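hey m, so remember when u said the tokens were messed up on ur end? i reran from scratch. heres the input so u can diff it against urs
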Amino acid sequence: MTEDNSIKVISFRAIPCKADGRWSVRMEAEAEVLNEGDYTIEGEIHNESTVRTARLGEGRQKITLSLFPESAELWYPKGYGYPHIYPCSMKIGRWIGNAVVGFAEASWKDRWLVINGRRIYIKAAYWTETEDAEKTVKSAADANINALIADNPSEKLYAAADRLGVVILAGSQNTGHPSSVRNEAVLSRPEISPAIQPCHLFSSREEENGCISSLNEPGRGRKALFGIEKLFRRPSSFEKLVYLTQLRSAFDAIEAVTAERIATGASRGAVTGFLKDSAPVSEASLASDGSWKILQYATRLLYAPLCPLMAIEGSKLRIYAVNSGEGEEKVELSVKIRDFHGGKKDAREYAASIAPMETKLFDEIELGRIMRNEYFCYAKLATKNSLRERNILLDTPSRLKLQDPHLKAECRKTGPRSISIKLTAEKPAFYVVIDSGPVKGIFSDNMISVRPSAEKNIVFMAEEEADLGKFVSSMRIMDLYSAMC
């Protein structure tokens, strides 16, 4: 804003409005008029402008102006269109106020969120205030999250969400932001008891070394250990504890979100957990420095618009594919059951079309005669433009007869900020996670599985100029076998 000597603007806002099927922008300025007189009031948005003259008396005045943009596009959340926003301005005398607006009509119908007439499957996380809202919301959008649940959203959060196409679900709607929706959603989320989170055993990284020994202590130490050993074998180092704790949170999210997405016809959305937290080991999907934890990579896969899903119910392994987009998808699905030496026990191929908002059951595989602790299932869902892979272990990880995968990584610099990592394995490797240490950036994929017959090529995109030597010396790779051995 700039000030005119004869008028002092106290507040300014631009509000999108819809009446009789037509969108407009109402600009409102609260001003202290110092000199009575005739003032020229101008408004502009998206190549639409208007001018009028008004006589303003001295004292507090509310000055309004409406514009009716004819060609502006609507705002949509990620995955359902583009989040169109438009700069607009209001000028009173020599004073100029600027704002950004978007046009979106949100409502709830049969507990579904509907935006501009389109039914939205909510892929949410809980918001925790952060200093860099833009970076954190971008991380959410990059992980296919299209909604954040926030108690008291800040203007910085709204501004970032408007630009990036992320819905903000809050107690009330802020009409000045297209991303703002009054929260009426009842969404399931993965539950993990705080009592079994190892982060409660220490308050800073200075206590890392004492954390493992604390697992032997009565009370919270034993509870935390129980939370780990319920699924995995006991970790022997802090690095393994961090990996297994993060993997536990990812497993909880995978189970909960898979159940919700399988029930797409009845389910309106899901929540993976908290987006960001300051604790070194917690259920949040982003670390305090903004780097992605295992849960964030799992979220990106779980929330992909089209993805394969697998669930074990009793003695049956059910194979699904889900489409939360708006268009029909023609897919090819490949399913293989293999042992931990890489041997193949079963292989099946399918082809089908999946309608929008549909979950399709492709097959039920009977597991009664399979030694579950010796096998896993691999699924690959392919379309003309995409490829999605999933693995499911057929037994609790601590019971599995895993083999040493002998993982190898070859790194090369492919651009100013990009590094390519080729992963190979002699035996199947599960939930492989690469940690770049102090080198900040995001991997094209993580929490992956590597099979002997199929190498994986991962790209790391650094926040700054990439130093290959520093990256290689800092890089740490963990997988399920090494974490439990």
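this time it looks ok to me. The CA atoms of residues 428 and 451 lie 5 Å apart. if urs says something different then somethings off w ur setup not the seq
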